[in-house]
Design brief:
By secondary structure, the chain is α/β, with parallel strands linked by helices. The protein is built from 16 helices and 11 strands. The strands form 3 sheets. The protein has a 6-stranded parallel beta sheet. Strands 7-8-9 form a 3-stranded antiparallel beta sheet, covered by helices on one side. A two-stranded antiparallel sheet has the order 10-11. Helix 2 links the parallel strand 2 and strand 3.
Length: 356
């Protein structure tokens, strides 16, 4: 693409933590001018969220860097008149503003829609909240994972509830806000702004997908079953190979199952009534696991992967992040930026490609 699609777009990013800033980075990667405004003293709290091995003297924490890329930074306290005037100047020709202030702060800082539209009537306002714009409850990703059912489902019978190791709800809310803002840009009428609001709670509930329908239609309350799939087998079982590697399968059809057991020289399982259909395999997945594990433990991971990929069977080695980023395909999604002498890295917010 010779010209980035948002080269003529200006975005003011007042947001902090992960969801809002990642939306700002999304637009920046696509060519927009993004100005991130932070409080001179407090900044973005994620700059204090550092690993043990990170230096306190570095300008940006790894967490902060993950969702702040190609942005111009301004330090403004919007409660100070002179600073607010500078903010107004930036706002006059902006297209989008991003924020995640808790209820009441938008009034104190004069960033309510009526304040902003008095300066720029065509401004699109993107807002992220925890539990809705009228709810002043403080929300973090962990709280939403707990209250939306994700933690109760995640884990094993022995582990108890487990949160996802990324801020999943923030990521989901960010995608929802991106979609809403893109629609608002498409529908924008001359001289008329719009508010696009996403709550972390709504984004979480809307992402329950098949698990929600399993409950709503069959009254199935999901239990903690590790990586197993409640509707498909074998799917998510973890096997150890002869060379001590871990792998898993996503066998979503009878055809895939037949190819798998044929490769494992367990042909009889395809005709066994306990495993001949997916619903029976789900019922008897424990027995099936032991048949498969005994054979897989005698083969190397590389041989299993190469053989099954050739047969078109969904299989994967369980990789650490170190192994993930040894792959050039993963590294092609890494973006670097030198900021105040610090080499910062993050993965791209853009996974799609425009193909001819």
């Amino acid at each position: 693409m010779s010209k980035l699609p948002f080269q003529d777009l200006k975005v003011i990013d007042l947001s902090t933590v992960l969801a809002g800033p990642s939306v700002g980075t999304f637009f920046a990667e696509l060519g927009a001018r993004v100005i991130k405004i932070e409080h001179p003293k407090f900044g973005d709290v994620t700059n204090t969220w550092r690993l043990q091995q990170e230096s306190d003297s570095s300008k940006q924490s790894a967490y902060y860097s993950s969702v702040n890329f190609l942005k111009e930074n301004m330090a403004l306290d919007l409660t100070i008149e002179a600073h607010y005037s500078l903010f107004e100047t930036q706002l006059k020709d902006a297209d989008i503003i991003l924020m995640n202030f808790k209820k009441g702060d938008d009034v104190k800082l004069k960033v309510r829609p009526e304040n902003l539209w008095a300066i720029n009537p065509s401004l699109i306002i993107g807002k992220i909240s925890g539990f809705g714009s009228d709810n002043d409850r403080i929300a973090y990703d962990l709280i939403l994972q707990a209250e939306s059912g994700f933690m109760a489902m995640n884990g094993t019978p022995d582990s108890g509830p487990v949160k996802m190791p990324v801020a999943l709800i923030d990521v989901l809310a960010a995608h929802q806000l991106k979609e809403g803002l893109l629609l608002a840009l498409m529908q924008r009428e001359q001289g008329k702004g719009q508010v696009v609001s996403v709550s972390l709670y709504d984004a979480a509930i809307c992402s329950l997908a098949n698990q929600a329908s399993n409950y709503l239609m069959a009254q199935q309350v999901p239990q903690r079953i590790g990586s197993l799939h409640p509707n498909i087998a074998p799917y998510g079982e973890i096997f150890e190979t002869q060379d001590g590697q871990l792998l898993t399968f996503a066998i979503g059809s009878d055809q895939h199952f037949e190819k798998l057991v044929s490769y494992l020289d367990l042909h009889e399982l395809a005709k066994d009534p306990r495993f001949s259909s997916n619903i029976e395999r789900v019922k008897n997945r424990g027995v099936l696991y032991h048949y498969m594990a005994s054979v897989i433990s005698m083969k190397t991971c590389a041989h299993i992967i190469s053989s099954l990929l050739e047969l078109g069977v969904p299989v994967a080695k369980i990789k650490s992040l170190e192994e993930v980023f040894e792959d050039p395909k993963a590294m092609s999604l890494v973006k670097t930026e030198q900021i105040d002498g610090q080499n910062t890295k993050r993965v791209s917010q853009i996974a799609f490609k425009f193909e001819a």
